[in-house]
Design brief:
135 residues; mainly alpha
Length: 135
């Protein structure tokens, strides 16, 4: 995939619309919280687009996408860890955290679609390594 195609894929207007719609379905979701979370996710996406627009080398773009995927996946893991501990301790989690987890999942899926299956496999193994060592 060339740089123009990657930027076009990231700029999809459907991401914010679909995410907002999905988050509003979450039980107890406050529309103003949804707007804040969609804005946060959109800012992450805009930062990635701006970064990629600065890079001309396709190999560097691929590396940048992989690094950003690692960052997003790490955030997603941290958010889900928080949600799981809140659910374990109290039987529920705070809606703001749940909304962030769902929103970052949407962005993560978009970026994942721009990577090769081999890259995703290597990144997944890399991120799981600390967990395997702890077990």
């Amino acid at each position: 995939m060339n740089v123009t195609d990657i930027i076009s894929a990231l700029k999809t207007d459907q991401l914010a619309t679909h995410t907002r719609s999905a988050l509003l379905e979450y039980q107890g979701a406050n529309p103003s919280d949804v707007d804040r979370v969609v804005g946060w996710m959109s800012a992450l996406r805009t930062d990635l687009i701006t970064l990629i627009q600065e890079i001309e080398d396709p190999e560097e773009v691929a590396m940048t996408l992989a690094i950003n995927y690692i960052e997003l996946k790490s955030r997603w893991i941290a958010i889900n860890t928080k949600i799981n501990y809140q659910n374990f301790r109290t039987g529920s989690c705070d809606s703001a955290t749940a909304l962030r987890g769902a929103a970052i999942s949407q962005l993560l899926a978009l970026v994942e679609g721009l990577l090769t299956p081999e890259d995703i496999e290597q990144i997944t193994a890399f991120l799981a390594e600390p967990i395997r060592k702890a077990a």
